[in-house]
Amino acid sequence: xxxxxxxxxxxxxxxxxxxxxxxxxxxxxxxxxxxxxxxxxxxxxxxxxxxxxxxxxxxxxxxxxxxxxxxxxxxxxxxxxxxxxxxxxxxxxxxxxxxxxxxxxxxxxxxxxx
Length: 114
Description:
Elements: H1 2-14, E1 28-33, E2 43-48, E3 53-58, H2 68-79, E4 87-92, H3 106-113
Parallel strand pairs: 3-4
Antiparallel strand pairs: 1-2, 2-3
């Protein structure tokens, strides 16, 4: 299962987080998913399970939108308070750039980097 392998790679290998049990998770993958019912924007890819969520934003050939990552993250926190410490954001760029402050404020970005 690619979603399971990818989730394990991101959460365990890249982030060093061993507290999330990926093996017992029922993992779903959505494309162009709204982070909440009220939201007008869409996450490029969204992986969720009973104990974690991964927001994937692809910025190859596209620019940051106003408060985009911040809104995605905050909407998911509000929708799923149970796993608020297990919501992860993957920001894909051609050269490994970090998101701009146009998309996410420094405080939240620092929190997510930890």
